[in-house]
Amino acid sequence: MASSGPTSGKKSLNTVTLLFKLPYYTQWGQSLLIAGSEPALGSWNVKQGLSLSPVHQDNELFWCGTVSVAAGFTSEYKYYVVDDNKNVLRWEAGEKRKLVLPEGVQDGDLIEIRDWWQDASEALFLRSAFKNVIFNDTEGVKKELQSVSLNKSLDAEDIVVQFVISCPRLVPGSTVVVIGSNPQLERWQAQDGLKLNYVGDSLWKANCVLRNQAGNPSLELGPNREANIDLSSPKQSRYVVLSDGALRDAPWRGAGVAVPVFSIRSDEDLGVGEFLDLKLLVDWAVNSGFHLVQLLPINDTSVHGMWWDSYPYSSLSVFALHPLYLRVQALSDAIPADVKEEIQQAKKRLDKKDVDYEASLSTKLSIARKIFNLEKDKVLNSSSFKQFLSENEEWLKPYAAFCFLRDFFETSDHSQWGRFSQFSKEKLEKLISEGTLHHDVIRFHYYVQYHLYMQLSEAAAYARKKKVILKGDLPIGVDRNSVDTWVYPTLFRMNTATGAPPDYFDKNGQNWGFPTYNWEEMSKDNYGWWRARLTQMAKYFTAYRIDHILGFFRIWELPDHAATGLVGKFRPSIPLSQEELLSEGLWDFDRMSRPYIRQEILEEKFGSFWTVIAANFLNEYQKHCYEFKEDCNTEKKIIAKLKTSPEKSLWLEKEDNIRRGLFDLLQNTVLIRDQEDPTKFYPRFNLEDTSNFRDLDEHSKNVLRRLYYDYYFARQENLWRKNALKTLPVLLNSSDMLACGEDLGLIPACVHPVMQELGLIGLRIQRMPSEPNLEFGIPSQYGYMTVCAPSCHDCSTLRAWWEEDEGRRNRFYKTVVGSDEEPPSRCTPEVVHFIVQQHFDAPPMWAIFPLQDLLALKDKYTTRPAPEETINDPTNPKHYWRFRVHVTLESLLEDKDIQATIKDLVTSSGRSFPGKKVEGADESREKLSKVQLNGKA
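Above: the chain's sequence. Below: its structure in token form.
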């Protein structure tokens, strides 16, 4: 038993005993403990925390523990699940608990603290998306924080119960009362119940003195809460602090719209959407009943200086905003007439069907430089700019230096920068110092980032005021030629690339080209780079989407010489060891791990042209057996040789087919040998599809089938779970944004339980069901902790999907719509309405729709060919991200019909919407929130 308070040389303080009691079921080998801010609870050192013991009571398992403290004790604390060595396995979600002992406690009193484990889903409503946006009412009644005190003297047999409940979703002006069966709780009469006081952090508290008496009706959702206080027991605590979890109410559900910033069209833009356009988008969202606007990544991607940079997931900097989204008209109040005319001409020239990435960016930067040259001293000497520079210099100065060096050397490949290839703070300070010829170039990058910050902040503040969540996107990777890999090279595995194994999007897998993360190095400063990223995002967003959340469990890692995503391995993962393979009777490792190329395979693949292929790309190392030549033994080498070989005229017209055929040969393995340890191997994805596998003996085939299944679906689960529980909590605790995870693709079994445990909201796309035996997802069966959508930016729109495959359309019409009739070949507004309504009516917390799918509710907006509305083609690594909505936001705001149609879907589905009145609220804005609590005597 721990104690607190001075004991020597002075009169001892009054001490009381705290009895903590929590109902919770654990697995074998697990136990609970409390860690808190005070020494009596370990000073946040979990291994020094208060251990709890299991106690069975009325068929329920409680964890209990006692500690002696001074009568005026206060502390923050949390509950943790630990193993036998007190290693943390999980901890409860939500804010730290705050313990303040009731007034009047006396020396020797026993104070019983009854808690509920704080569930992650309940804690979501304490995130900024809800706390500071949806449930924040700056114009509403301001609550005064009140202390919880006793207003009556105690008799010897009296017991004080302190009721504590979390109500983050209550509007200002609400009243919370406790009613129950005890006379002190007014025998279920709500109007005379015990009124709770708001004490901050969404908590309501009140003290109640219980005396011997009893009863039983009901009000709040769910069963009656029970105090179970035995007033006649001599062992009953003198005080009971009853933390009763969250107010039980109907699940909150909202809706939103998704559109990339670059796709927005307005009367003011220069050929591409801009941050200030978000204010118009927010207005449209509010009119349509939406609480959320979801964007794609908005970071600078200017790596190549061409349209390839339109790919928003390949960041030049994870901190800098993209100059593409700058509104040059807002840079100054004193823009000269000739520059204003240039802007007007640019608006006309750039007003195209799609985004002209290069023209829009270069035009904006050119105009911004002219305005910068006119007002640089005024802006850069302003107090607001100096504050911005001071708060952001850690990333801003390296970013500006990088941009200068990129342009000077005409490449972002920092390995080509001579003495500047290796970053150092000393070199940085010299590069950005005053007095250099290029100092204004450096300052121009500061200037642009400052205005981007100001413009996005203005839009973000506007969204919060309108009760609309701005939801950002956290890319899983960074470009290998980025500021981040230059400044922090040890955080990345630069000899690797990131991708995804074959899935719905691409049967050959995806290769995104990003280096994988060196998680071991990142952990040394508690993932400081990640924490800084999230802190930066939280300046603008109150929610975010974690791109490819599977990457925090394991990533699909490819060698940097790969061009496709097929021949990779998971990192981390437990490989197949040479000893393990030998024990299974597999010994011919070269046969299984090198490309299996036989003459008959060449003839089958290339026909009579096989001899040309063999002569140019292969060596015959034994009769009818071939291997690749040194200059073309990787995918990237093959691509280069096809382009540069003197014999390229032989295959010029067949180049694509030849490349695919050579890739097939190179990928014709069943085992992948580890580059760093040749005694370790990984099963090649879909190994049974290869002729290498087909020509093996039956014993080897059976062993490999079993090992393949074990590697991909069994042996890694615990490793991946532990990996995610190291990294994801750091992200979640780095800000108070609401976090959602993109969990599509090949999903390990550990993913959804971990996401549920951490309070992470998943994603459900109807055409990509997570259930293996379904072709189409069933929205009515989705879980609450998800976002549901009919499509997303990584796939075709609802219209395009409907019209591109007749057989699939027929199956959908029969199984989902439930009709045996012939479906319309065109995705009519009626079809769109049916599918969209399915998602609005579904259980998920959020239904978020691409703007294209919403506009398809009206014939007027379906004149554009459906395939042109697709934002991304994941099968094409060089896809041009340039989709622009074909109608301006101003004209959409004038279309009251479609806004009313969408809002009707929101309201009829029971989803929350901005401006929604609180049911039953009177003119004083008070709502009686009845908490049923059956206090037994």
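The longest strand covers residues 60-70.
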